[in-house]
């Protein structure tokens, strides 16, 4: 008898391969990494299963080179969750498992365990981890000194000449090292302090906190609270209870732009180790956070989508903030939905989960309707009022950048009263089109067949599909004319125009071009919070989650795009964006005002939304979905394919279609022809998809499982890149 080990891989092979465990090597556990040969390469895989077999048939198998882990990298619960995800999303288990691990574990190199010390700045509650200071010699020196001390004054910190991001708040305060027992794991649990500076909950809030903390049923909570109604405060109170019981909390947030503000509130409230997990950390940093939460060394993790896969020693609560946000859905490779998987995870681990939002997704409202979630509401703002809405008709009023005379008047009015104004435009750059005035040629990215956007300040043109950029052309590539003009406007031009109209008023712009990193974001946000900037211009980066107490006027400069979309989700998305954007106004004692500019002031979507408010509106479009049997009243699966000439994808999807048709014994199934994607070409790849719809999720899933092998074996599949998207949110 010999031992056969089945190993799964990240990308190299989509199915498990078998290897022999050489004599003398200990039996690896399921979920450990091993080094094995594939052809002539050494590849890292994960042990999927082990079995004893007869030698004769298996002696052609190769042997494992090396076992890389003594203990499995996944908890039992996580392993089950990922197996389920692999089945549900029809994605190879190897890829799923590796996606759930820190990238660094895809390499063989192993990392020594580090000694960490957490430092707290007393009073403000800021906590940082001194091991982060390791990049430069003077930081290394500082680290040695810090590690030998228990407390250090701000003067001493200055002498160390290290730049701790919170030094500003350090004035006259002391840095204190959080005590750590010899057992790394428990050091924060014996030492929990909750800041006294917390508001008294209002009735709604305290009832919700009571309900959730005393709940035993563990049905997911959908916390629907209008913008600024104190959801975060509710989270903080519930987390307080979780911390006291010695457990950890995972909070998912949609975007990194939201975290500086939220995390500050968390730091200020609790003196426990709180870590932020997001995509701009490097691989080592991510790995160390992962390790620490596995060991129970941190108490709270705030993170974006993939933070869902963090291993915790003792997870007690999951929060999904802004549950409706589309960034929870991965759009490439393994197309999982982090909110939905968070629900599975909470169930698997038997812990409570709270999803919070001002604008719940239709899917979640549907889940409330069928009893899968429980809805609780926060209906009013502890501070401030909900804003009033005004629609400005743009028809027949020529204006640069849609800055109508009445809008300019309103801006002037607010600014003169020392209030702040926010102008929202979801289009970055100077102008979306550069055209030759002589022959009409529009500069276009050939890889995407999409117009270049002009970025005047940065002196470049950029394709917003593939992000490739070039210097601004001097001449037309066709007729050589130098008379190139730009059409339309984006945030950059809007800013230019605003500065012309209001030359003495400070303006700040927040979009992907002006905010390239969190440092710049913090800088801009502080300009806003200190009220130095009076007019704020931004894309949706500015629209979400921020709490600017002095903004009294929000204007949506151009919203007409939404009325021409052929995506059935367009009105849901618009209603969410609109509600979130207008929620930025009137967050303090001053009454807020929202101005919407459109050529379609009587559009039914608009009037219904304003009249009824988000929830009523959403329930109404949910009814429409029911009548037309669209999700969530039916289930969608998309098979996507892309290639460089387009015809291969078409051939592949045609073959997939034939296979499905053969299996299709159920008349309730709808199967489309191959359709070009919403972005039909990107980075030189033509993109197509096939849509399968059925009223039953389970039926659709079983059907696809039955034929997935056949689809994988279609010869045309070798010439394309394809994947499966279950419950897609984009086409
Ligand atoms: P949301 O997360 O729903 O947008 P927040 O929790 O950020 O709302 O609360 C909005 C503002 O109201 C914050 O400044 C917060 O400190 C404040 N706040 C929350 N709850 C209360 C309360 N019970 N009393 C007074 N202020 C509160
Ligand atoms: Zn020309
Ligand atoms: Zn492009």
TrEMBL record:
Alphabetic keyword roster: ATP-binding, DNA replication, DNA-binding, Helicase, Hydrolase, Isomerase, Metal-binding, Nucleotide-binding, Primosome, Zinc
Protein name: Replication restart protein PriA
Cross-referenced Pfam families: DEAD, PriA_3primeBD, PriA_C, WHD_PriA
Source organism of this protein record: Candidatus Riesia pediculischaeffi
Chain residues that bind Zn(2+) 1: 436, 439, 476, 479
Family the UniProt entry places it in: Belongs to the helicase family. PriA subfamily.
Protein purpose: Initiates the restart of stalled replication forks, which reloads the replicative helicase on sites other than the origin of replication. Recognizes and binds to abandoned replication forks and remodels them to uncover a helicase loading site. Promotes assembly of the primosome at these replication forks.
Top class in the EC scheme: isomerase
Assigned GO CC terms: primosome complex
UniProt EC number: 5.6.2.4
GO biological process, one term: DNA replication initiation
Quaternary structure note: Component of the replication restart primosome.
Binding residues for Zn(2+) 2: 445, 448, 463, 466
InterPro entries in the record: DEAD/DEAH_box_helicase_dom, Helicase_ATP-bd, Helicase_C-like, P-loop_NTPase, PriA, PriA_3primeBD, PriA_3primeBD_sf, PriA_C
Cofactor note as given: Binds 2 zinc ions per subunit.
């Amino acid at each position: 008898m010999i031992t056969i080990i089945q190993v799964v891989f990240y990308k190299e092979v989509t199915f498990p391969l078998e290897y022999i465990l050489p004599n003398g090597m200990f039996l690896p556990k399921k979920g450990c990494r091993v080094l094995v040969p594939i052809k002539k390469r050494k590849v890292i895989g994960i042990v999927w299963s082990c079995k004893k077999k007869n030698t004769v048939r298996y002696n052609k198998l190769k042997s494992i080179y090396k076992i890389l882990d003594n203990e499995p990298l996944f908890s039992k619960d996580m392993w089950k969750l990922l197996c389920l995800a692999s089945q549900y999303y029809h994605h190879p288990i190897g890829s799923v498992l590796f996606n759930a691990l820190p990238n660094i574990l895809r390499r063989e190199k192993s990392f020594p365990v580090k000694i960490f010390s957490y430092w707290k700045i007393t009073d403000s509650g800021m906590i940082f981890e001194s091991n982060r200071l390791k990049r430069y010699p003077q930081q290394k020196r500082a680290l040695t000194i810090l590690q030998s001390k228990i407390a250090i004054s701000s003067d001493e910190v200055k002498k160390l000449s290290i730049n701790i991001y919170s030094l500003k708040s350090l004035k006259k305060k002391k840095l204190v090292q959080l005590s750590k027992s010899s057992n790394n794991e428990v050091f924060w649990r014996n030492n929990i302090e909750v800041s006294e500076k917390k508001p008294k909950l209002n009735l709604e809030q305290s009832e919700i906190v009571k309900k959730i903390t005393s709940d035993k049923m563990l049905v997911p909570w959908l916390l629907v609270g209008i913008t600024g109604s104190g959801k975060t405060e509710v989270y903080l109170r519930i987390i307080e209870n979780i911390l006291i019981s010695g457990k950890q909390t995972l909070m998912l947030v949609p975007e990194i732009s939201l975290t500086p503000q939220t995390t500050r509130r968390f730091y200020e409230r609790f003196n426990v180790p709180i870590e932020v997990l997001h995509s701009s950390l490097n691989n080592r940093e991510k790995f160390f956070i992962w390790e620490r939460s596995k060991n129970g060394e941190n108490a709270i993790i705030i993170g974006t989508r993939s933070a869902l896969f963090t291993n915790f020693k003792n997870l007690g609560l999951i929060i999904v903030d802004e549950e409706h946000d589309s960034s929870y859905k991965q759009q490439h490779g393994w197309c999982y939905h982090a909110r939905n998987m968070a629900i599975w995870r909470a169930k698997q681990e038997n812990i409570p989960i709270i999803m919070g939002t001002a604008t719940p997704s239709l899917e979640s409202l549907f889940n409330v309707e069928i009893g899968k979630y429980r809805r609780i509401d926060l209906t009013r703002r502890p501070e401030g009022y909900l804003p009033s809405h005004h629609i400005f008709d743009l028809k027949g009023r020529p204006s640069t950048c849609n800055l109508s005379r009445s809008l300019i008047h309103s801006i002037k009015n607010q600014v003169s009263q020392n209030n702040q104004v926010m102008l929202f435009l979801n289009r970055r750059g100077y102008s979306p089109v550069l055209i030759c005035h002589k022959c009409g040629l529009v500069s276009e990215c050939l890889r995407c067949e999409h117009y270049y956007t002009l970025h005047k300040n940065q002196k470049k043109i950029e394709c917003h599909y593939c992000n490739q950029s070039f210097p601004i052309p001097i001449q037309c590539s066709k007729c050589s004319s130098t008379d190139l003009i730009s059409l339309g406007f984006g945030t950059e031009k809007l800013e230019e125009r605003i500065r012309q109209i209001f030359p003495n008023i400070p303006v700040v712009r927040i979009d992907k071009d002006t905010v390239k990193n969190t440092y710049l974001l913090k800088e801009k946000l502080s300009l806003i919070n200190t009220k130095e900037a009076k007019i704020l211009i931004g894309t949706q980066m500015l629209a979400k989650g921020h709490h600017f107490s002095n903004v009294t006027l929000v204007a949506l400069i151009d919203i007409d795009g939404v009325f021409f979309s052929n995506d059935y989700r367009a009105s849901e998305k618009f209603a969410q964006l609109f509600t979130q954007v207008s929620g930025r106004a009137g967050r303090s004692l001053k009454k807020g005002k929202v101005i919407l500019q459109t050529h379609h002031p009587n559009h039914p979507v608009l009037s219904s939304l304003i009249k009824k408010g988000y929830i009523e509106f959403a329930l109404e479009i949910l009814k429409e979905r029911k009548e037309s049997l669209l999700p969530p009243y039916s289930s969608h699966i998309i098979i996507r394919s892309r290639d460089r000439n387009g015809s291969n994808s078409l051939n592949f999807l045609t073959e997939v279609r034939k296979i499905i048709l053969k299996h299709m014994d159920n008349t309730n199934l709808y199967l489309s022809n191959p359709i070009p994607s919403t972005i039909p070409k990107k980075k030189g790849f033509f993109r197509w998809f096939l849509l399968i719809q059925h009223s039953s999720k389970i039926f659709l899933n079983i059907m696809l499982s039955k034929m997935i092998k056949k689809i994988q074996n279609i010869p045309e599949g070798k010439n394309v890149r394809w994947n499966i998207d279950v419950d897609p949110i984009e086409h």
